[in-house]
Every structure is written in C-alpha cells, then in structure tokens.
Design goal:
Strand order of the largest sheet: 2-1-7-6-5-4-3
Number of strands: 7
Order of helices and strands: HHHHHEHHHEEEEEE
Low-confidence stretches: 1-63
Largest sheet: 7 strands, mixed
Shape: globular
Structural class: alpha+beta
Helix content: 25-40%
Number of helices: 8
Distance between the termini: 42 Å
Mean pLDDT: 75
CATH class of one domain: Mainly Beta
CATH architecture of one domain: Roll
CATH superfamily of one domain: FAS1 domain
C-alpha cells in the first residue's frame, strides 16, 4: 500500500507562528484595564457592539514607522523570510539602529527554490546566516542610489547592481517593489532569492 508523506513543516514557519502567538498574547495582556471596566457585562447586550470612548487623560497614540523586522511582518508576504531570520538569531540585529538596506525575497521567491536546497540552507545554521545576510547591506540605499557595480553585503560577498531601462537588477534579478521605508533602513522587495557565490 502506498503511503503519502506530508511535506515537513519548516522550523521557520513554526518559529514565526510562535512569534505571532507571543505578540498576540502580549498585546492582549497589555490591554488597558479601564477599557475592560467600560465593557457592558449585561448578557442581553452580549451581541451588541460596544464603543469605548478614548480616555481624556491618556497620552495621544503615535504611529511610528516599524523597524525592518516589523515592516516585513506587517507586509504579510515575507513569512518565510521572517521565520528564517528568527531561526538564524538575526532579529535583534535587524531591529538595531542600522541603517540597513534589505533586498527581501517574498514567500513566492522562496517557493522557486528547490525544496532540497531550501532545507539544506535551513538545516545548516552557518549557511542560513550567510544566505540571509547576503540580502543585507549597510546604509540606507533607495533604488535611485543603486549604481551599476558591486555592493558589499553584510555576509561579505558583493551583490552586482545593474539596470535595464528603469528597472534595477540585483544579480540579474529585478527589484519587484522599491523603497519601502523602515525606521532603521529601507526594504526592496525581491521576486527571487539571492544566493551567494560558492
């Protein structure tokens, strides 16, 4: 009898799910007690929508640009990358002052990588860290700042920048969306994973 084998779930996805759960639980635990007291506990009103007026003594809410990791998580298309960053222990680095420029592959970009290659990278901590930091350069570089030539990565080996019309290419791969601002740098969306030489 033939058996079907479910594809293994990557450690990155498990870690990302854990991170999202922790963030969700922390947000729920930090909810204002005054808001809890204002909720109507009448069973008849259980299905009614409750609107709570903002406290006049509360400080105004300031919405700030997220750091590179927060920006990636909010975008919703970088779950594979975020999980790998967590597995590689690079979250604190990418949340630091920077600034950094990140050429961030989407989940669809990771789906193009052969599964055996992807698992090989994920299963080797040194290789994983090298591949991820190969997507990062020091400084805040908008697409207009990227000139033809080489650009040294945090991993060491350089990326090759070229242009085709108005498109900016990284190692021959087009930047899909450019100049996404983060509080500690900038993110360029890549439709392909960039693999270091060797």
């Amino acid at each position: 009898m033939a058996s079907t084998r479910t594809p293994r779930r990557s450690a990155g996805r498990r870690s990302l799910a854990g991170l999202v759960l922790v963030v969700s639980l922390t947000a729920a635990a930090c909810a204002d007690d005054n808001d809890d007291a204002a909720v109507n506990n009448d069973p008849a009103a259980a299905n009614a929508t409750t609107t709570i007026a903002p406290s006049t003594t509360a400080a105004p809410v300031v919405i700030e640009t997220a750091d590179i990791v927060g920006t990636a998580l909010k975008a919703g298309v970088f779950s594979q990358l975020a999980g790998m960053v967590l597995d590689a222990g690079l979250v604190d680095t990418l949340r630091s002052a920077g600034p950094f420029t990140v050429f961030a592959p989407t989940d669809d970009a990771f789906a193009k990588v052969p599964l055996a290659t992807l698992h090989g990278v994920q299963d080797d901590p040194d290789t994983l860290k090298t591949v991820l930091t190969y997507h990062v350069v020091a400084g805040k570089l908008k697409a207009a700042d990227l000139k033809d030539g080489e650009l040294k990565t945090v991993a060491g080996p350089p990326l090759t920048i070229s242009h085709q019309g108005s498109d900016v290419l990284i190692n021959g791969n087009k930047i899909a969306a450019a100049d996404i601002e983060a509080s500690n740098g900038i993110v360029h969306v890549m439709g392909d994973v960039l693999l270091p030489p060797g």
